[in-house]
Amino acid sequence: MSKCRHDVLFFDSERSRVKRAAPVFGAVCEARFASNVNELHEELTNTRPDLFVYAYNWTDNSQLEKIGQELSQPEFVYLPIVIIMPVDQQELVIKNFENLRITVQPALELDENGALKLKSVLDELDLLPHVAVVDDDDISRSVIVHMLEDYCNISEFGRGDDFLKFLDNNKPDVVLLDVNMPGLSGFDTIDRIREVPGMKKLPIIMLTGDSDRDTVLTSVTKKTSGYLVKPVDREELRNRIRQVLEAGTPKPKIRTVMVVDDDINTLKTVQAILKGECKVVAIADTDQAEQYVAEQVPDMILLDYEMPGHNGLYLLQKLRIDERFNNCPIVMLTGNKDRQTVMSCFASGAQGYLAKPVNAMSLRLRVRQHLSEAAEFTDD
């Protein structure tokens, strides 16, 4: 079983199980463990994990709120969370983790089979672009990380030397590199990067507080992917990374996602999150949706569970008896996370559900996953 680069923090109040799980999960990731709130606080203070895995135990009920508070800090808003727990206890536990990206794994055990399942979750994270941020200014670096943490996987470094060591075993998709750093400057770091095997064409975007002529000309001479002036604008930063990633690659077929929700704000939010990912067809009620699908079969459907008139469950059941939609993934959007709602979604043929309000990273990952799977049936 190959080991990935992801740092995973496990919380399990049963220390005996932690001892058994440590070597097994340590074989697939950088595994860290906490068994109480104090240890959790210490681990979160000293590390920035890529994933948090919580093995729920009924004896944890007295400290659920404190665990949720530790994970509700701004820097962990987009931290992916896997909770190992029975579905019938989901409502009790998840209310302590509102607005966080959560996946429930009722069957994940802290053993070798569980490690394999965890690796599949980590593989999903690897679908996101990997961006390295190299900047000696802690504040500037943390701002950029916060701008990107719901958009990509991030590795951050305060020195060019540290980043060069990282390149010995890793290759990011894009590098954001500060021009002015003590010791090894940004431009000196580029020269060293180009000497590393396989890194001659690594895309590098320079970060600079100055857009003077010399900085611009040197950026061109060093064959960088351009530069951004600090303080960096969030949308400009994301757009530049997207442009760099898309440069020189064939344009994929544009996929269509139909989202049906009577809440206009939800429709606008989904459209904004998926901008650049796919074509979004926003529809406000099931009657309009029925008219659309009578002539069109989208690549994926996001369907609100509760709507006036015919609700989402009605449309879901109707679509599932139409053979044209056999390979069309349908994910329910719901503000209800109780067991009955969840089970009714799956029983009627949904591939999953997303809790409202929709989390940006969770939505992107789910759409990418299902569109990729659907493409296997439609693309030769």
Could you describe the 3D structure shown?
The chain is α/β, with parallel strands linked by helices and 380 residues long. The protein has helices at 15-25, 37-46, 64-71, 90-94, 112-125, 138-148, 160-166, 186-194, 213-221, 234-246, 264-273, 286-293, 312-319, 339-347, 360-378, and strands spanning 7-11, 30-34, 51-55, 81-84, 102-104, 130-134, 153-157, 174-178, 204-208, 227-229, 256-260, 279-283, 300-304, 330-334, 352-355. The strands form 3 sheets. A 5-stranded parallel sheet has the order 2-1-3-4-5, with helices on both faces. Strands 7-6-8-9-10 form a 5-stranded parallel sheet, with helices on both faces. Helix 2 (37-46) runs parallel beside helix 3. The model has no long low-confidence stretch (mean pLDDT 83).
